[in-house]
Amino acid sequence: MNTTSHTVAVLGAGTMGSGIACVMARAGHRTLLFDVDETNLGRGLDTVRGFFDNGVRKGKIDAAQADSAVANLSGTTDLGDLAPADVVVEAIFEDLDLKKETFGRLDGIVSERTLFHTNTSTLSVTGIASGSRLPGRVVGTHYCNPAPLMKLVEVADGRHTEGWAHDATLEFLDTLGKTSVVTKDRPGFIVNRFLIPWENSCIDALESGVGTKESIDAAVRGALGHPMGPFRLLDIVGMDIHKQVAMRLYEQLREPRFFPPPMVERMVAAGDLGRKTGRGFYEYDDNRLFGS
Length: 292
Prior knowledge:
Blueprint: E1 7-11, H1 15-26, E2 30-34, H2 38-57, H3 63-71, E3 73-76, E4 87-90, H4 96-107, E5 115-118, H5 125-129, E6 138-143, E7 152-157, H6 163-175, E8 179-183, H7 191-207, H8 213-224, H9 230-237, H10 239-253, H11 262-270
Parallel strand pairs: 1-2, 1-4, 2-3, 4-5, 5-6, 7-8
Antiparallel strand pairs: 6-7
């Protein structure tokens, strides 16, 4: 794979999928955002366009670059439209059977040399790859959230990933300006092995009165050097997603530190999921996932 423009299909128009689509479009790749639901797809496309509009307003990208990125973007609910894709990035719901089925369907649509990337960090890359008749082309690529702002991508080969697919994946991620970290196909990879228990600890600290959400966020930014505090980050990720990831890791590893605190369940039940619902730990005037 060279550094020329590619056609990239991003599956799933949720938080991660729309964020990854931002990355692809900004890098100059023709970007096809796919979702089975027309409403979700429209919301995802609006998120991507809103990201670039916001970047122009803040002076982080000029209008011509934003226009070019948006021009690279299109959406579809028809899996058959993904036939031209050189790279497929799967960011759909964390369900092993669904991911396997989707890759199996794509086998009959795209080229045999199309790379299959899965953004999972809780399910087995090997298990997902087993849904394809060509498991050698499947690679785990976990984009750190929020994908348009974070440079790191974890790369994990499945048991049958072939060398050409691994190498082509690293080359492709380089065209995105991303930093690749190679890890093993293990639950949580590197980042979520550390991040989920830490976020749970921050939630516990908030609930027990150690500090306010503002003071804990400020302490993490000021003393630990994080670009944003845990509660701002959780509002972008979504409390439903945090709960889902935490539970999947707990089910596989059986370590109590992965089990989500009671506050998570209450927030999910109340619909206080974060930016996408306008309220999580903080309240928001809009639901731009990657806004200020």
